[in-house]
Amino acid sequence: MTTTDSAVGAPRPQEAPPPTPGGRRRIGRLLPMLTLGNAALYLVYLGIGQVLLPAQIELVDPDGKVAALGWVSGVAAVFATLFNPLAGLLSDRSRRRNPWILGGGLASFAALALLGQVRTVLLVTIVWCLVQAAMNVYQAALTAVVPDQVPAERRGLASAMVGIGTPIGSVVGVTLATRYVPDSLGTGYLVLGAAVAVAAVLFVAVVREERLPAVEPAPLRRQLAAFADTLRVADFRWAFIGRFLMMLGFFAVSLFQYYILQDHIDLPGDLDAAGAQAVLAPIDAVCTLAATLLGGWLADRLGRCKPLIAVSCVLAAATMTVPVLMPDWTGMLVYTALAGVAFGCFMVVDTAMVTLVLPSADDAARDLGVLNIANAGPQIIAPFVASLVVGLAGYDALYLVGALIILAGALAVAPIRTVR
Q1: Number of domains observed in the structure of the chain
Q2: Is 340 helix (H, G, I), strand (E, B) or coil?
Q3: What pLDDT is attached to residue 2?
Q4: Strand 11-13 vs strand 2-4: parallel, antiparallel, or unpaired?
Q5: Is residue 8 part of a domain?
Q6: 340 and 286 in contact (C-beta within 8 Å)?
Q7: CA max distance for the chain
Q8: Which residue in 2, 42, 252, 377 has the most C-beta neighbors within 10 A?
């Protein structure tokens, strides 16, 4: 498999560490730390984004909470979209990853400590943007570790180890966060911020990093222009579109789950929205974890990614109809389990596929940063789309719109040629 260097337009092989005994030992240390690092990422994104932030906004502006959450999430996602590829570019230029992982983790802790103390929608927006900036410095460098240090034939396993961190971080983050709603939000922010800081310290302590081979640095203006050039590589562009659509459909619903449980779903009398999320999170985690392990194994075993991605998208779209047909607690339990299976399989297989269609081996963090716009970009659009749909037609329409968007994502992988 060859990729294209987006900066100079010359094909080059995807570089990876040789399968030496020392390399195998390094991979053995790296894999669990990839799980830990990604778990910390989703602990913050899910624990705060789905529990603490909506609860904080409801306290600040109870009457306009849906519009306020859409505004805060959308503006902060702009910061995420801009900072991820920029942080990846800076990481590539330094030829190091660990300092950026450590710095991003520690800065995230400081920003989250501040977020727990603000009491207006404007200040929540500003400080949540700072959190997004710091977390995307951490994320961009962490994401680039796999193509830097893992051989191509082990990418499926490495992607599975990364993917395992998603359900672990999600369930731990949501479970922790619900303990601090509604009376101790500041403490909740401190606890979750400390978790990502500790994960960053442990990662750089355990994973020994050698500076990447020096490359002749291109002018910064040329590297910034190369962001757009990466999308001229057809396979990478289609992978970007597929990821974007899947995440758009997913975030349109998940960003508002706290309010959906609070205002739309018929919950048992002894459950509130936060308590319901604490029950749903482990179910989602177990199903996502099982699908992640199976999806990573199948990707390596079959050597085929596209069919697995398409099936995952179709299942995710079909799952969106469950709360429409069953807007009660049983329906949410079924929805959560099926959505976990679909999302877990999609993320691990799609991540493995993406590492095989990167335009440039030397600029992996930059190119993955561009791809991560497909993760952050939908978070800009989704809150405004969701607020509009809910305002006009209610939460049932939101689920159906999400399903249609995800189905479009399934179609986007078909034109990819260099990966089966």
Answers
A1: 1
A2: helix
A3: 30
A4: antiparallel
A5: no
A6: yes
A7: 64
A8: 252
Integer Rg of the chain from CA: 20
Q: Which amino acid is at 402?
A: G
DSSP-based three-state secondary structure for 119: coil
What is the DSSP annotation of 225-257?
Answer: HHHHHHTTSHHHHHHHHHHHHHHHHHHHHHTTH
Which helix (H) or strand (E) segment holds residue 13: the answer is strand 11-13
CATH number at residue 263: 1.20.1250.20
**Between vectors from CA 53 to CA 48 and to CA 54, what angle results, nearest 5°?**
125
| Closest among 87, 112, 167 to 372, alpha carbons compared | 87
CA gap 169, 42 in Å, rounded: 5
> Does any domain span residue 3?
no
For residue 313, give the amino acid letter: C
* Distance from chain centroid for Cα 75: 17
Can you read off the two tokens belonging to residue 114? 């501040």
**pTM metric for this prediction:** 0.76
Query: Could you give the CA distance from residue 41 to residue 47 in angstroms, rounded to a whole number?
Result: 10
Q: Which of 120, 159, 154 shows the shortest CA–CA distance to 38?
A: 159
Would residue 4 count as lying in a domain?
Answer: no
Q: Yes or no: say if 367 and 5 are a contact pair by the CB < 8 Å rule.
A: no
Q: Distance between CA 38 and CA 193 in Å, rounded?
A: 14
Cα 351 from Cα 368, distance rounded (Å): 10
**Contact (CB, 8 A) for 150 and 27:** yes
SS3 213: coil
Tens of pLDDT, residues 110-155:
999 999 999 999 999 999 999 999 998 999 889 888 888 787 777 7
Q: Answer whether 242's CB lies under 8 Å from 107's CB.
A: no
Residue 83's nearest CA partner among 46, 149, 123, 135 is: 135
Q: What is the domain extent for residue 307?
A: 19-210+219-412
At residue 212, the 3 state secondary structure works out as coil
Report the alpha-carbon distance of residue 278 to residue 332 in Å, rounded.
13
- Whole-number Å distance between alpha carbons of 102 and 107: 9
Report yes or no: 250 and 402 within 8 Å, Cβ to Cβ. Answer: yes
